[in-house]
Write a structure and sequence with these properties.
Rossmann fold; 8 helices; oxidoreductase activity; two-stranded parallel sheet; 2 domains; globular; alpha/beta
Amino acid sequence: GLARELKDLGADVVVTDEELQDKGFAERVKEWTNGGREKVRLGLNCVGGKPATAMARVLSPEAHMVTYGAMSKQPVMLPAGLLIFKNIHFDGFWVSKWAERNPAEKKRTVEDVLSLTRKGLFKDAPVLEVPWSFETKQEVLVEAVQGTLEGFRKGKGVFVFQNT
C-alpha cells in the first residue's frame, strides 16, 4: 500500500490522519524520538483542520509549524496553550511568493536539487503516464484529473502530449 511505497522512497515513519489524531499518538512519538529526548522541531502542514492541530500538539517547545497548503479546506485551529506555554511558532509558506522575492535563492535551490538528482540521491516516485492526443477521449482526461483530486493513486499523473 501507500505506507510501503513511502517507506521505499525513504520515509522513516508513515502515519495516517487517523493515527495522528489517536489519543496514544504522543506516546508513539516518544518511541521514535529516544523517549522524547530528541526534539520535534518542525512540522510541515499541507492539510489543515484537525490533523494539523494534532501534529502541532506533538511538537517540542519553540518548534515551528509551517503551513504550505490547505487540502482539507478546513482552518488550522490552535490551542492557546501551544502558543503560550510551548511557544510554538506558526508560519505560512507560499513557494511562488518566496521564489519571486528570492530569485537568487530559488536559483541556488534548483541547482542543489539538480545536483542531488544527478548524484542519484533521489528515488523516483511511481509515474502514471496519461497519453494526450487528438484521439484521446475526454473521459480519459477527466478521469485522470479526477483521480488526482480524490487522493492517492498508483503513481503521479503525468500527461504525455503526443499528436496534438
